[in-house]
Amino acid sequence: MKIIFLGDIVGKTGREAVKKVLPKLKKKFKPDIVIANCENISHGSGASNKTLDEMKDAGINYFTAGNHIFKGVKNGSIWERDDLVRPLNYPSDSRVPGVGFLKMKILGEEILLVSLQGLVFMPEYIESPFRIFKEFLSEHKNKLVVVDFHGEATSEKITFGLAFDGKASAVFGTHTHIQTADERILPGGTAYITDAGMCGSQNSSIGIDFQEIIKHFETGLKFKTEPGEFPAIVCGVLVDIDFSHRKAKKITRIFEVVK
């Protein structure tokens, strides 16, 4: 089974870049499913049904998200969707909308898609992703599980990957928007990358117009979330997983420049 996972899609520039590149990637790699992080899909922060549907039409099947998905007034009824997960380690009560995992059917097999959020350098007060995922695995034994680990610290991400090596089939890091070059199959058979990168403006501050960020660094004042322009990049990974053993066989980094 082949999965394409795309890093954070940032604003209209990211969406347009995905629409240009994804058909070519699907033709080349022939994935069984495409997953993408969508927390910044609407003008660089948050998501809407309109932008999510736009990406569905472009060929993305499921979406993961982190803390930014809760920002702004663009959320609307996105939580009624059956193709979107927010971090599982947020409180699972009526105060926090959405679900932390989804059951996907691929080639007749059930696969669990999980989102988790790190704690290091993150502002939210939430549960430990390590403890929550351990509990999750105890409730879903012998399942093929794919994880988007949304975190700031590289140390926390790699520690999570090693802690659950052989228990999750793949762990894809997101949130920093900067693609790392450490994609590999861990000793226990888990496909891992510290950060899948982003889909957005290349000459920007992680997808946002860098002129706005310069003002912020010079003054300390808040900045407008204004996505940068083209050229853009589309970043992610392709993973090949063996259904019978729930182990990854290969992981290939994706990095495409879009003019």
From TrEMBL:
InterPro entries: Metallo-depent_PP-like, YmdB-like. Keywords: Metal-binding. Fe cation 1 binds at residues 8, 39-40, 177. The active site is at residue 68. It holds the Pfam family YmdB. SUPFAM superfamilies: Metallo-dependent phosphatases (SSF56300). Fe cation 2 binds at residues 39, 67, 150, 175. GO terms for molecular function: 2',3'-cyclic-nucleotide 3'-phosphodiesterase activity; metal ion binding. PANTHER family: 2',3'-CYCLIC-NUCLEOTIDE 2'-PHOSPHODIESTERASE. This is TIGR00282 family metallophosphoesterase. It comes from Candidatus Berkelbacteria bacterium CG_4_9_14_3_um_filter_39_23.
